[in-house]
Amino acid sequence: MNEIALPGALRITRFLFKRSLVCVLSAALCILALVHPLAAAAQGETTLSVSPAEASVILTNTRTISLYLAGGVNLNAFDVAVRYDPSLVDYESYAFGGYFSNLAQVYLRDDPGYFRLAATQLATPGVSGDGVVLNLVFRGTSRGISPIIIEMADFAVYGDGPLVHATAEHGTLRVHDNPAALPKYTVSGLFSLQGRADTSGIPVSLGYGQTHWLGPYAGVSVNLSSANLTLTDVVEDSYTLTTAMPRCLNISAEMGKILAVSASHNAIAPLTLRCGNAVWQEEAGGEWAANNVIDVADISLIGLQYMQSGPDLDGDVNFSGRVDIFDLALAAGNYDLTAEIVYAGWTP
Ligand SMILES: [Ca+2]
Ligand SMILES: [Ca+2]
Fold this sequence. Notes:
- The chain is mainly β and about 350 residues long.
- The protein folds into two domains: about 130 residues, Sandwich (Immunoglobulin-like), CATH 2.60.40.680; about 160 residues, Immunoglobulin-like (Sandwich).
- Helices cover about 15% and strands about 40% of the residues.
- The protein is built from four helices and 21 strands.
- The strands form five sheets. Strands 1, 2, 3, 4, 5, 6, 7, 8, 9, 10 and 11 form an eleven-stranded mixed sheet that branches. The chain has a three-stranded mixed sheet with strand order 15-12-19, with no helix packed on it.
- Helix 2 packs antiparallel against helix 3.
- The longest helix has 26 residues.
- The radius of gyration is 26 Å and the shape is elongated.
- The protein starts with 8 loop residues before the first helix and ends in a 6-residue tail after the last helix.
- The N terminus is likely disordered.
- Bound molecules: calcium ion (2 copies).
- One calcium ion (CA) binds next to helix 3.
């Protein structure tokens, strides 16, 4: 970065123009930086994040996405590249954030799906701490979710120092229709659990609409014997319904249970979740994944926790507060069953 030649006269002129713009923007951005939720990054690590991590924009409108630097130490210049889906969004323009000042553009590349910008401070001390490096304006051109991938996040230290490769935290930009222009309905249904009279606490989600990309709509059931889950202002569309009830077999997205919401269809068919799934989630590669089979692992956990009491025992598959013969009976009765098998005939 330090070896890059100083910009020519033309660039300096442009830079002076941009500089006045940056001066106007910087006060507001500095305030933003102070209240930024990502400000508390791990100490000692330099990260560059897409902010917000999950942004959205109405089709044909523009949305500004920030690249937020945390944990910088004595930095003077940057070279960053962002990749996105050009079939969904267009890059329109950039503006420097408030992190650096007196910036001069050194290199700019703007290809479909790829944006790269290098800039350096001129005759300005190095900067430490957190703040917005760059604001990128995208326009939504087609419905869907574009990844916003930080492909390069290099920073030069003021004076003589090693190049800093910041850890990249990527994001997404979802392009959706304008909800104001679409019909909306209240969607309701009855969800219950095998082996338990109380019908409350079942998390249900509709995800994003397949056509308009609005949502996700999500709720938790209450303890009623009819219509115990209600989702309001659901835009007319088709949705992938999922459930996430601990200790039970759940409806996963992969099962493709599609709810088509319309004026004539806004009630979800009743569903009783089969339980006994003591091991209902597993850690894989640092993330929790659903376990939707009842097998020897579930029986083993119930055995391990047998006759224990408390709210946090996954072996208590009927939520009675104690692990006992009733939990064992529930799991044994559903032995070898999977969510795919037991919900094969259910259509929302
Ligand atoms: Ca299991
Ligand atoms: Ca129990």
